[in-house]
Please model this.
Amino acid sequence: MPTPTPRGPMLLLLPIFLILAVVAALFAWVGGWIGNRDLTPQKMMDTAQASGKQQPGFRRAHSKGVCFDGTFAPTPAAAKLSTARAFSQPSIAVIGRFSASSNNPYAPDGASPVRGMAVQLKTDDGQDWRIAMNSFPFFAAATAQGFQAMNEAGQPDPATGKPDPDKMKAVLAAHPEIAAFQAWAKTAPRSDSLGNTRFNGVNAFRLTDAQGVDRMVRWSMRPRAPFAAMTPEQLKSADANFLGEDLERRLAAGPLVWDMVVQIAAPGDPITDPSKAWPDSRPEATIGTLTVVHAEAQATGPCRDINFDPLILPDGIAGSDDPILHARSAAYSVSFNRREREISAGKSAYPTSQNGSAR
Model:
């Protein structure tokens, strides 16, 4: 009779081996060591740096920004959708950042229709939730490869000083969804205030309730101040920093408020493609209120050194398999590490405080 093979202990260890393999693969992908070797987070950040007047010590994208602080208060509907502590703690202090889309920290505020909002919430049980949103209703591309190709095609040709239109045609042929975003960018009105801008999380996340039921959602911050677009006169003559100046004026008069709303996916909705909006007919729930009470220059503000990684999530909320979501997380890490090295080396373009450190 053959000797029995001791399979029992090995089978018990198999799940551990699988978990370790997955973790190792994630670290390897973030480091750019496996997967599509033609595209790594480092290469994406290299392209971002080359696309404008990048300054050392600043974020590689959305470089221009202003810090804010305030509170987040959940609604009763929130706790029904997720066990996240942020949805049961009565009020949470938040640190956030408004931003522009350029990687030039001195770009005029009216240059782009895109505005950004990022928020960090730390609950009383020590959990951390970071949210990154933008004013566009859907993302430019379905994949990181498509987004990278669009950015590369948009860089000026050294011979002409302008992007090569044939390169962009080739990108659109390979990634046709980008055309919808380009059309939006050409026609979208530019808000005349951060306080009246709606910010959208275009990636999907999973909320899990107390019964273990999962729902896929996309969230947005919807301002209570009515939207107003920049006028043609403002587009021509507005001060380069008018959004920050307007924010200060509004906050001097009182807090600014946004309602956090989740849109709940139906079967068949594109969970892993942020370039496609879900139908407006999908059910929605207001899950909280963000109240902004104070703003401060990012050079001295508490948001400056925060990496608003959208995959830093609390229990009860999980990321989807959206490839753009995971690419953003990896790219944000590269951006954060680069600017921290520049600040530590004294190369930062930020103003210097009295003690000589970059602020």
